């Protein structure tokens, strides 16, 4: 029997094929949701969809785009916002 | 939520001229101000100022009503003075600090040396202990 925490579906079930040909069940954490634009809600590109501890292992430049509001707004909404501040 | 990007085609915009103050709206320099220094072709200009001096697509910037009097191909210093007259601060661009980099390279070496000295002391103490035994 798996331990209690593995019986709930908060863990993903992954079938791993072992070198001997035997197939075992591994339990892995589910991936977080895609990062979304704070304004329009579209999926942000350039923000990896990995677990928080894996995110910490990445370089800061690999975590979000290198521009104002990078990782918060999509490029289109960022552009609109900058244009709004001009006028 | 698809929005059509306005101003994508600014082939012959009368606002684009040498000395025009612009705001970059794309990339790392987005939100920073710069001046058109040279017009390279109908789509690209050379800009300088708060932004890095580089070739830019005019679809990636917004013109401002302000204008400064600079000559075509003006240097960064001239652009900086012109923008400061308008009240826009431009950070002074430092030349790459060659000496400082050299110092930084030396520093870890010195630290290693210190560590080595410490370990040598420890070794000496342990050796002394062994001798005492």
Describe the structure.
The complex is a heterodimer of chains A (87) and B (133). Chain A has 87 residues and is of the alpha+beta class. Chain A folds into 2 domains: 30 residues, no CATH class; 52 residues, no CATH class. Helices cover 30% and strands 16% of the residues of chain A. Chain A contains 4 helices and 2 strands; from the N terminus they run αββααα. Chain A has a two-stranded antiparallel ribbon. In chain A, β1 and β2 form a beta hairpin. The longest helix of chain A is centred in the C-terminal third of the chain and has 12 residues. The radius of gyration of chain A is 19 Å and the shape is elongated. By secondary structure, chain B is α+β, with helices and mostly antiparallel strands. Chain B folds into 2 domains: 66 residues, SH3 type barrels, CATH 2.30.30; 38 residues. Chain B has a 5-stranded antiparallel beta sheet. In chain B, β2 and β3 form a beta hairpin. Chain B is elongated, with a radius of gyration of 27 Å. The N terminus of chain B is likely disordered. At the A-B interface, α4 of A face loops of B.
Q: Strands of the biggest beta sheet of chain B: in what spatial order? A: 4-3-2-1-5
Q: Helices and strands of chain A: which structural class?
A: alpha+beta
* Helix and strand element order of chain B: EEEEEHH
Mean pLDDT of chain B: 76
Distance between the termini of chain A: 65 Å
Query: Can you tell me the number of structural domains of chain A?
Result: 2
Please name the defining characteristics of this protein:
heterodimer; A: alpha+beta; 2 domains; two-stranded antiparallel ribbon; 2 strands; about 15% strand; elongated; B: about 130 residues; alpha+beta; SH3 type barrels; five-stranded antiparallel sheet; 5 strands; disordered N terminus
Element layout with pairings:
The complex is a heterodimer of chains A (87) and B (133).
Chain A: H1 4-7, E1 11-17, E2 23-29, H2 52-57, H3 60-63, H4 75-86
Antiparallel strand pairs in A: 1-2
Chain B: E1 20-24, E2 33-39, E3 44-49, E4 54-57, E5 61-67, H1 76-85, H2 98-132
Antiparallel strand pairs in B: 1-2, 1-5, 2-3, 3-4
